[in-house]
Input
Amino acid sequence: MVAIVQVPAAVPSTADTDAVAPRSYLAEVRTRFFHNRAGVSAVSALVLLAVAAIVAPLLSPYDPLIGNATRRLLPIGSAGHLLGTDEQGRDMLTRLLYGGRLSLLTGMLPVIVATVIGTAIGATAGYLRGPVGAVLMRTMDMLYAFPAIMLAIAISASLGAGVTNSVLAISVVFIAPISRVAEAATRRVIFLEYIDAARLSGASTACILMSQVLPNIFNPIFVYASGLIGLSIVVASGLSFLGMGARPPVPEWGFMLNSLRGAIYVQPWVAALPGFLIFATSMSCNVMSDALRDALDIKDA
Amino acid sequence: MTLMLLRRLGMVIPTLLGVSVVVFILMSVLPGDPLAGLLAQDATTADRAALKHSLGLDAPLPVRYVRWLGDVLHGDFGYSPYRRRDVSELLGAAFSNTVRLAVTAAVLGIGTGLTLGTLGAVMRGRVMDRVVSMLAMTGISVPSYWVAILLIIIFSATLKWLPAGGMHSAHGGGFPDYVKHVAMPAFASAFVSVGVIARMTRASLLETYSMDFVDLLRAKGLRGWQVLWHVAKMAASPVLTVAGLQVGFLLGGSVLVETIFSWPGLGQLIFQAIAARDFKVLQAGVLVVAVTFVLMNLLVDVLQLLIDPRLRKAA
Output
């Protein structure tokens, strides 16, 4: 699986500020992002998938849970079933649309949870340094010593199967790398004058962290975390594939891919469909993350 | 230099201890009754307590941890009641199968990744570069379990060229038979590594190509491949780190790929242990994976020190 490679994150630079027509930093970033054709198409694909998952009942006349036993494993392009039917005679297109709800959610949530917790840990450790910082970061190192997927599987096994537990497991896995990025970024800003200024004007540690440090370490963390979403979706669906995440009957791509394994010799391309959506989502997330990095002009986050 | 090596080696011990604590805690809070499969239907509460005591499960957690760690350090991983075998015996067999798969996948993944990444960097901005970038992006995004299923669909279900699982045919068949069995799982495991390594190789080479010394080499009249040789030496370090991580992942065995192809390695052993609540095997399996990963990272760091004089100076 993809490595969570650790490279020190750079503080964003706004080197090419236009002398003639000064524009806000965000406007600059937005323009750069929307000039990136790959990035724009990736975001469009993700929005399309998410919207389709949300309004699935409006798009499909079928029930995602109830199948027709006489119409099992129809091929792609059958009349009335554009993408065929699964091993219980349920419409594939419908199930893929509904499946996006859980798959996208279990992919996104761990990254959000881990970003909040990891940033808090990393920024605190980076700002306080000393024994507290050392204890925090060495604890993170212990989690870092496991291959990501194996750790997610081990935590899931110990918590038991289920969507909530798999989200928790993946969140724990991502906390360590995010806290490292946050710590490195914090260490780079704490010696800058504006932090001294805040300290001299009497601001408390918590206040400095929230109002001075956080906005200035946000970009590298944001870019790094966005790069984890694709991996998160692959791992979350992988856990369901192993029967440790989402449980039937609610459709979820990873679980669908596993339950259709028995149909590989009957309707191979129908059996491959859920995997294609996991791949397409993960790829779109990675392309989007690359575009974000270019737009924010971050060298290595 | 020696001091740096020693310092790096010294760092491994607390890491390994930390790993053992994490593994022990994870497996001690495992849901389900560890005694469930061991007691007879008509067992009394007293039988239960006696069994619990004989397994040492009634002691407090820290005591159990120290006992467990002591046993592990003596190479004793306990006995699996589910498989009726010693855990170390099971682990040994599974690990050697995983190593065979990992080595094949690593050679395939690193070789292809390096070649593609170099091609991309040398032909920067041309069609070949675009193709390499696309392939690399696909590699880092694609779920290995989907690659595995696609391979089975293409080569087993449709073309009927390769067997869909296992490590040997029932009737044997020597080396060609083994190659047929290892091809698909190795490719499925290697695909991600190809993406990661190609991306890093291309990026690292391009960054080095933009340095001033390259202009000097060109001005001296060196040929393209001679320049590439100088650049490659400079660019090797980050690629080595990433490649080492990938080998670490591969040596840990992929639970998903091994399960799909019924490859009798560590990943499959761990997955079956989860399903059977065979917690001794699970505990030992996860520990072996993590320790392998830590040692692999150590090896990479030591190699870095040996090949990169800049790191040695930093000491």
Summary: Chain A touches chain B through 46 residues (CB under 8 Å). The CA atoms of residues 85 and 91 of chain A lie 5 Å apart.
